[in-house]
Amino acid sequence: MKRIAPVFALLACASFATHAGSFAGTTGGASSAGSSASSGSTSGDDKRVLGARDDAAMFVASDGAIRGARLEAALRHLREQDPAARAASDLQLAQAILAR
Mean pLDDT in runs of 10 for the chain (100 residues)? Predict the structure, then answer.
């Protein structure tokens, strides 16, 4: 039973994140910060962000207590590439990564 609770928390966070705007998206849609997402990312950049999904899920589920190296790299990359991401919190960016 103790192992099931974190799974439900992850699923709930992932479900919530699907409603968040995506800073990391390539669709050019509006982000939660009100500007459009970067559409000029390369496949290597996408791999960096997508590779951080597990770390992002743990970060969101732990309310920011667990910070993985892949998530840190993805957050740094997103902030370098997208001005709107610079104004977003780590939690908002992690949710956007999960929404991809």
Answer: 47 43 44 42 69 96 96 95 94 94
Two tokens at 66? 């667990």
The residues, ordered by sequence, that sit 6+ positions from 57 with a Cβ below 8 Å of its Cβ are 10, 13, 14, 98
Residue 59: C-alpha distances to residues 14, 35, 54, 69, 91 (Å): 11, 24, 9, 11, 8
What's the Cα-to-Cα distance from 57 to each of 28, 29, 36, rounded to whole Å?
23, 22, 24
Query: Which residues on neighbouring strands pair with residue 99, listed in sequence order?
Result: none
pTM recorded for the entire structure = 0.58
